[in-house]
Amino acid sequence: MIKQTRRKLNKSAFFALIIFLFICGCDTKPDISDDALRIYYPGKDGTYVRPVGFEPADSDTEDLISEMLEALSVQPADYDLRPAIPEDVKVLSAILKDGVLLIDFSAEYYKITGREEILRRAAIVRTLDQIDGIGEMSFTVEGVPVNDSKGVPIGIMTADMFIDNAGDEINSYERTRLKLYFADESGTALEVTTEAVAYNSNISMEKLVCEHIISGPLSDGLYPVTSPEVRIMAVTTKDGVCYVNLSKEFLQKQGNLRDEVVLYSFVNSLTELPNVNKVQFMIDSETEISFGEHSYLNAPFERDLTLVNS
Q: What's the Cα-to-Cα distance from 282 to each of 212, 245, 298, 299, rounded to whole Å?
């Protein structure tokens, strides 16, 4: 487990360096070897997050999660830093399921506000992301999802949301309108809708579109095309082709939906973006996969509006 974790950390060594240079706020570089695990702590002046080397006692995933959460709750030796989890905030549970770590805090979490909350959250996410098997995280307080200072749900978090960002820039929200395609009642055609959404400016528009397709429509008379259990592994665009890497739950079709309705819900929605001309699906990074009865994912899909109800 530790060996796998450290291999993962080596791959992100460059990003760790960027974070250090950008938000460290100190003149001397922490003496941490490249393959060491780190615990991230916010500075007492509330302007930076700094890593401290960490040697775990156990390599089991659950034990490592517990150890790191405990370390995040303890005052580090450097008194310029402070615990990421304050003393009065209790971790009620930490459950890892399908790569998502759900952490439930006690009500005292709400005492943390503004920039302080953002930096503490960044420290927790950056720390636990080093554990092999954790790809995303979500915070709740006594079972209720955490909102940011603007009342917008924080939702699923990944470590790269906090790279090259400091302070309030981490939670810089913008608003936009997305043109999205969802299934009609019969499941044999698509309907188009426009949704106004608030989003974190650190997320790509391509990922934002995919998230809203998976979460389902807001309007009555429209129907989702995938299970909400589908996870987005990665979304990147190069030379006009958007590569959408989804978890295997995507292959489990819902109800009587046609294959084409599911696929072109994503394709037509993504090609509404000016930089996307085609969509290449991947399932757990594999493209040589069949979808449904007669659809294959081994080549990019182009926009097709013939399925859309007039």
A: 18, 4, 8, 10
Bridge-based pairing state of the strands 136-141 and 100-105: parallel
According to DSSP, the residues that pair with 194 across neighbouring strands are: 179
CA-wise closest residue to 190 among 286, 305, 55, 85: 305
What distance in Å separates the CA atoms of residue 73 and residue 69, rounded to the nearest whole number? Answer: 6
C-alpha dihedral (249, 252, 253, 259), degrees to nearest 10: 90
Query: Residues 52-98: pLDDT tens digits?
Result: 999 998 889 999 999 999 999 999 999 999 999 999 999 999 999 98
Give me the helix-helix angle, 61-72 and 114-128, nearest 10°.
Answer: 150
Number of domains in the chain: 2
Domain around 35? 2-171
Q: Which of 73, 91, 63, 85 is nearest to 5 (CA)?
A: 63
**Domain-terminating residue out of 141, 171, 201:** 171
Backbone torsions φ then ψ of 126, nearest 5 degrees: -65, -35
Euclidean distance between CA atoms 195 and 188, whole angstroms: 22
**What confidence tens digit (pLDDT) does each residue in 156-195 have?**
888 767 754 444 455 555 778 899 999 999 999 999 999 8
Give the H/E segment covering residue 212.
Answer: helix 205-215
**Residue found under tokens 């909350």:** 117
User: What is the C-alpha to C-alpha distance for residues 171 and 151, in angstroms, rounded to an integer?
Assistant: 12
Residues in CB range of 150: below 8 A, 6 or more apart: 171, 173, 198
Query: Distance between CA atoms of 275 and 180, rounded to whole angstroms?
Result: 16
Do 54 and 191 share a structural domain?
no
Contact predicate 91/223, CB 8 Å: no
